[in-house]
Amino acid sequence: MAVYTGTLGEITVSGTVISGSAGTGSECTVVIGRERGKFNKVGTNVSEHTNGMKTVEGTVTRKWISGDTLFQSLIDLADGTEFNVKVEISGQATSITASGCVANTVTRRVAPGTEVMLETMPFVGRDWF
Fold first, then answer.
1. pTM as predicted
2. Are 125 and 85 in contact (CB under 8 A)?
3. CATH number of 9-128: 3.40.50, 2.60.40, 3.30.2010, 2.40.30?
4. Which of 7, 42, 89, 92 has the maximum number of C-beta atoms within 10 A of its C-beta?
Protein backbone atom coordinates (compact mmCIF):
# COMPACT_ATOMS: atom_id res chain seq x y z
CA MET A 1 0.00 0.00 0.00
CA ALA A 2 1.36 3.42 -0.97
CA VAL A 3 1.13 6.35 1.42
CA TYR A 4 1.09 9.84 -0.06
CA THR A 5 1.59 12.95 2.04
CA GLY A 6 1.45 16.67 1.33
CA THR A 7 -0.58 18.04 -1.55
CA LEU A 8 -1.94 14.98 -3.30
CA GLY A 9 -3.54 16.54 -6.29
CA GLU A 10 -6.38 18.75 -7.33
CA ILE A 11 -10.06 19.08 -6.71
CA THR A 12 -11.90 20.46 -9.72
CA VAL A 13 -15.50 21.70 -9.56
CA SER A 14 -17.24 22.69 -12.79
CA GLY A 15 -13.87 23.09 -14.53
CA THR A 16 -12.40 25.31 -11.79
CA VAL A 17 -9.47 24.01 -9.72
CA ILE A 18 -10.25 24.79 -6.08
CA SER A 19 -7.24 23.12 -4.43
CA GLY A 20 -3.73 21.90 -5.14
CA SER A 21 -2.00 24.37 -7.41
CA ALA A 22 -4.72 26.95 -6.75
CA GLY A 23 -3.74 26.80 -3.09
CA THR A 24 -7.12 27.74 -1.71
CA GLY A 25 -7.36 24.92 0.83
CA SER A 26 -10.27 22.59 0.38
CA GLU A 27 -11.56 19.08 0.90
CA CYS A 28 -13.93 16.83 -1.00
CA THR A 29 -15.81 13.64 -0.27
CA VAL A 30 -17.16 11.56 -3.16
CA VAL A 31 -19.36 8.60 -2.23
CA ILE A 32 -19.90 6.10 -5.05
CA GLY A 33 -22.13 3.06 -5.20
CA ARG A 34 -24.88 1.19 -7.00
CA GLU A 35 -28.57 0.86 -6.42
CA ARG A 36 -29.28 -2.54 -4.89
CA GLY A 37 -32.45 -4.46 -4.35
CA LYS A 38 -33.84 -7.94 -4.09
CA PHE A 39 -36.93 -9.71 -5.29
CA ASN A 40 -38.55 -13.11 -5.27
CA LYS A 41 -39.40 -14.71 -8.61
CA VAL A 42 -43.08 -15.49 -9.00
CA GLY A 43 -43.91 -18.79 -7.40
CA THR A 44 -40.71 -19.05 -5.33
CA ASN A 45 -39.56 -18.02 -1.91
CA VAL A 46 -35.91 -17.59 -2.97
CA SER A 47 -34.64 -14.01 -3.00
CA GLU A 48 -32.34 -12.76 -5.75
CA HIS A 49 -30.24 -9.59 -5.68
CA THR A 50 -30.60 -6.96 -8.39
CA ASN A 51 -28.12 -4.30 -9.50
CA GLY A 52 -29.32 -0.89 -10.57
CA MET A 53 -27.80 2.35 -11.75
CA LYS A 54 -24.61 3.90 -10.39
CA THR A 55 -25.06 6.39 -7.55
CA VAL A 56 -22.77 9.26 -6.57
CA GLU A 57 -22.98 12.08 -4.05
CA GLY A 58 -20.59 14.07 -1.94
CA THR A 59 -19.53 17.32 -0.37
CA VAL A 60 -17.01 19.97 -1.33
CA THR A 61 -15.62 22.33 1.34
CA ARG A 62 -13.23 25.21 0.80
CA LYS A 63 -12.16 28.57 2.16
CA TRP A 64 -14.72 31.24 1.44
CA ILE A 65 -12.94 33.64 -0.91
CA SER A 66 -14.16 37.23 -1.05
CA GLY A 67 -15.69 37.93 -4.45
CA ASP A 68 -15.66 34.30 -5.61
CA THR A 69 -19.13 33.11 -6.60
CA LEU A 70 -18.44 29.56 -7.88
CA PHE A 71 -20.61 27.69 -5.37
CA GLN A 72 -23.35 30.34 -5.45
CA SER A 73 -23.46 30.22 -9.26
CA LEU A 74 -23.86 26.42 -9.17
CA ILE A 75 -26.84 26.81 -6.81
CA ASP A 76 -28.36 29.43 -9.12
CA LEU A 77 -28.31 27.17 -12.22
CA ALA A 78 -32.02 27.13 -12.95
CA ASP A 79 -31.77 25.80 -16.51
CA GLY A 80 -30.82 22.23 -15.54
CA THR A 81 -27.11 22.70 -16.25
CA GLU A 82 -25.01 20.05 -14.54
CA PHE A 83 -21.36 20.09 -13.49
CA ASN A 84 -18.54 17.64 -12.70
CA VAL A 85 -16.53 17.19 -9.52
CA LYS A 86 -13.11 15.56 -9.96
CA VAL A 87 -10.56 14.48 -7.34
CA GLU A 88 -7.15 13.59 -8.77
CA ILE A 89 -3.90 12.33 -7.23
CA SER A 90 -0.99 14.14 -8.93
CA GLY A 91 1.37 11.99 -10.97
CA GLN A 92 -0.50 8.75 -10.23
CA ALA A 93 -3.02 8.68 -13.12
CA THR A 94 -5.68 8.10 -10.45
CA SER A 95 -8.88 10.09 -10.17
CA ILE A 96 -12.59 9.85 -9.47
CA THR A 97 -15.08 12.04 -11.30
CA ALA A 98 -18.70 12.59 -10.33
CA SER A 99 -20.62 13.73 -13.41
CA GLY A 100 -24.08 15.13 -13.94
CA CYS A 101 -23.96 16.87 -10.57
CA VAL A 102 -26.39 19.38 -9.12
CA ALA A 103 -26.04 21.35 -5.89
CA ASN A 104 -28.85 21.82 -3.40
CA THR A 105 -27.38 24.03 -0.68
CA VAL A 106 -24.31 26.05 0.27
CA THR A 107 -23.41 26.48 3.93
CA ARG A 108 -21.04 29.23 5.02
CA ARG A 109 -19.50 28.99 8.47
CA VAL A 110 -16.45 29.78 10.60
CA ALA A 111 -14.11 26.85 11.28
CA PRO A 112 -13.80 26.20 15.03
CA GLY A 113 -10.67 27.66 16.61
CA THR A 114 -9.36 29.12 13.34
CA GLU A 115 -11.74 31.95 12.44
CA VAL A 116 -11.41 30.84 8.80
CA MET A 117 -14.58 31.31 6.78
CA LEU A 118 -15.58 28.09 4.99
CA GLU A 119 -18.27 27.23 2.48
CA THR A 120 -19.62 23.72 2.03
CA MET A 121 -21.64 22.46 -0.93
CA PRO A 122 -23.26 19.01 -0.97
CA PHE A 123 -23.97 17.60 -4.43
CA VAL A 124 -25.75 14.67 -6.06
CA GLY A 125 -24.65 13.28 -9.42
CA ARG A 126 -25.85 10.79 -12.03
CA ASP A 127 -22.66 8.88 -12.84
CA TRP A 128 -19.07 8.31 -11.73
CA PHE A 129 -15.94 7.14 -13.48
1. 0.81
2. yes
3. 2.40.30
4. 89
